[in-house]
Amino acid sequence: MSKQIQKIKDLYKENKKSSLAWYLALRGIVIIIMILRFLDGDFSSVFLCLLTLILFLIPFWINQKLKIEIPNLLEIIILLFIFSAEILGEIQNFYGIFKHWDTILHTLNGFLCAAIGFSLIDILNNSERFHIKLSPVFVALVTFCFSMTIGVLWEFFEYGADQFLNYDMQKDTIVQDISTVTLDPEGKNRVVTIDDINKTTIYSTTPDGQPKETSISGGYLDIGLKDTMGDLIVNFIGAIVFSAIGFFYIQNRDKYKFAENFIPVKRFSEKE
């Protein structure tokens, strides 16, 4: 067994055994998939597998370097989220097979990022080094803004990958109706609406200069806009849900103790 896994085992406490088991199981699956994809010559998937293995180490790195304890349940959810997004979503094409796979993950992402943002504010709020104590409302607001900021930055990343690397992370959508001022024949910024689109034809040129015609059945191709806005909306929902949980948790930590399953805490005191 590698030294890396042994270090993780040594640092995990008794109550971390279940998350360690999930880590080892998912890591083993990823390695097997990576080997199979390598033998098939699918080096893009091999890269995604390597990226996944690196991302799996983030909870361990936070625990060791930042001395922040991630709750057992939250750590398992993070590991499953990474596996679902990279391995199942990208390599196994769950994004294409299951219509709402991307929506589920972005909702969960909003929830998880809000939990992380809340924990950062809560740790600072309870630190003797900071003299300003934020109210529960303000903590919830910062939590929400932190989650939404991460969601927006991710959409920036998707847009950049699509524009500069010719990916399709912002999945295109077939639509049957469009409203646009671009098609106003008089150029007077008036909206032109086209309903019940059943086919779109694209005329282009191949690299060798030959004309090419591409037909899209069923409607018009929306280039990523609906996907991006849908992702931000469900991220908004996930952020709102945890911000509300965090608000009530600060007001009564004993009554809403279940929230501690999702809130990382400082592992050692500041003197340590």
Word description of this protein:
It is globular, with a radius of gyration of 23 Å. The longest helix has 30 residues, at 136-165. Helix 5 (72-91) packs antiparallel against helix 7 (101-125), helix 7 packs across helix 8 (136-165) and helix 8 (136-165) packs antiparallel against helix 9. With 272 residues, it is mainly alpha-helical. The chain folds into three domains: 1-98, no CATH class; 99-171 and 223-262; 173-222, no CATH class. 24% of the residues are buried. The strands form four sheets. A two-stranded antiparallel sheet has the order 1-8. The protein has a two-stranded antiparallel ribbon with strand order 2-7. It contains nine helices and eight strands. The chain has helices at residues 3-11, 17-39, 43-55, 58-65, 72-91, 94-97, 101-125, 136-165, 225-251, and strands spanning 68-69, 173-175, 178-180, 192-194, 199-205, 211-217, 220-222, 265-266.
Topology:
Blueprint: H1 3-11, H2 17-39, H3 43-55, H4 58-65, E1 68-69, H5 72-91, H6 94-97, H7 101-125, H8 136-165, E2 173-175, E3 178-180, E4 192-194, E5 199-205, E6 211-217, E7 220-222, H9 225-251, E8 265-266
Antiparallel strand pairs: 1-8, 2-7, 3-4, 5-6
Helix pairs in contact: 2-3, 2-5, 3-5, 5-7, 7-8, 7-9, 8-9
